Amino acid sequence: MALARRTLEIGTAAALALFASAVIASSLQLQNGWGPTGPQAGYVPLRLGGLLLLVSLGLLVQAARAPGGGEPFATREQLARSLSLFVPTVAMAIGMTWLGVYLTGAVFLAYMARRHGGMRLGRAIAIGAGATVVFFLIFELWFSVPLAKGPLEHWLGL
Question: Which parts of the chain fold into alpha helices (H)?
Fold first, then answer.
């Protein structure tokens, strides 16, 4: 049974309104005015939470009033395509904890080039490795911003 688009839009708008309400509530626990040195800690979050709440309520009304609420959110093919991007991205995010940013990034890019770009294995590996070397040079050497490293980088002394 497919979920109706309207149901998911209403649920998403309600979740966004709940999040905005939490932001507002936590901002109200801080000083949220304008102090002698500028905005206080809750000033910006309170206003952004208020704007987010207004937008989410507008989306909620728009979704509730939209005609044709029974159409499916996505077809089986669309969901499969979305999952073919989502699952490797989650795997990369989890893998970064143990393997570091560079190794997981290289594997992810090579996989995506092969799977979605239709590239041959050698070219996909070259793209993953090449992009990772460029990222390493940019972040580690030029910006001096070390990213999380895994056992391979430590073994190589990087």
Answer: 5-28, 43-65, 76-115, 121-136, 151-156
Closest CA to 79 of 131, 3, 157, 141: 3
> Could you report the per-residue pLDDT of 42-52, keeping only the tens digit for each?
899 999 999 99
Q: Encoding tokens for residue 11?
A: 């649920």
Question: DSSP assignment, residue 149?
Answer: B
Distance CA 69, CA 54 (A): 23
Chain centroid to Cα 41, Å, comes to 25
User: What is the Cα–Cα distance from 49 to 20, expressed in whole angstroms?
Assistant: 5
**Location of structure tokens 């800690």:** 41
Rounded Cα distance between 146 and 150, Å, is 12
pTM: 0.61
Distance in angstroms (rounded) separating the CA atoms of residues 12 and 31:
30
Tokens of 115: 């799977």
- Phi first, then psi: give them for residue 55, nearest 5 degrees: -65, -45
